[in-house]
Amino acid sequence: MLSCFEQAIIEFSQTYFNEAHRLNHQEVAEEDKKLKLPSNWEAKKARLQWELEENEKKKECAARGEDYDRVKLLEVTASDAERWQRKKKKKNPDTGFAGYAEAQLRQYQRLTKQIKPNMEAYDKQREESGEDFYPTSNTLIHGTHVPTKEGIDRMVEDVEKQIEKRSKYSRRRAYNDDADIDYINERNAKFNQKAERFYGKYTAEIKQNLERGTAV
């Protein structure tokens, strides 16, 4: 027959074993739940938490009648602002010519950044157009829009700037009819031009002797 002390030890052991088994099962279930989640779940969760906090701060600022952007800027430290500025300077989206599609995309992004919307003209056009301002498949608006003189002047100015910029990219050499023909095709002509540019001053005398027929 077991003593009271031994019975207490057995009961304690069973209780401890049951609690450990429950906690272990709970941890296994949590781990299995995490494995079934997407790989970027932690990042999404952090993003959602940040958005909730931002919305709460915006509501608080609106209730106090304060501008949220100004309040947020006051929380930025000098070191953070300096680090962001250095990071911004290091960014160079223009990696050079890689293809016509990439060049067209960079030009589109550059032009859209220069656009300064005129909200007064926007509101005026919306009032004049009425329901046609938000066209549907049954709306006929072709030929109804007339651009303003200021808009045409901006377009002409931008086109002239593009032409001036393109003229600096590469300068087409004028063809000289009197130049000696020392090539057999266009590729050979390019090669001869490069050779002349780098070694012409060293071979000028030899070339003159060959032309006079006095070469030794």
Could you please describe the fold and organization of this structure?
This protein has helices spanning 4-36, 41-64, 68-74, 78-90, 100-114, 119-129, 149-167, 186-212. By secondary structure, the protein is mainly alpha-helical. The mean pLDDT is 78.
Shape: flat
What's the total count of β strands? 0
Written as H for each helix and E for each strand, in order along the chain, the element string is HHHHHHHH
Give unreliable regions as ranges: none
Per DSSP, the total helix count is 8
Mean pLDDT: 78
For the CA atoms, what is the radius of gyration? 38 Å
Structural class: mainly alpha
> Quaternary arrangement of the chains shown?
single chain
Protein name: Pre-mRNA-splicing factor SYF2
Keywords: mRNA processing, mRNA splicing, Nucleus, Spliceosome
Family: Belongs to the SYF2 family.
Subcellular location: Nucleus
List the helices and strands and how they pair.
Layout: H1 4-36, H2 41-64, H3 68-74, H4 78-90, H5 100-114, H6 119-129, H7 149-167, H8 186-212
Pfam family, one: SYF2
Subunit structure: May be part of a spliceosome complex.
InterPro entries: mRNA_splic_SYF2
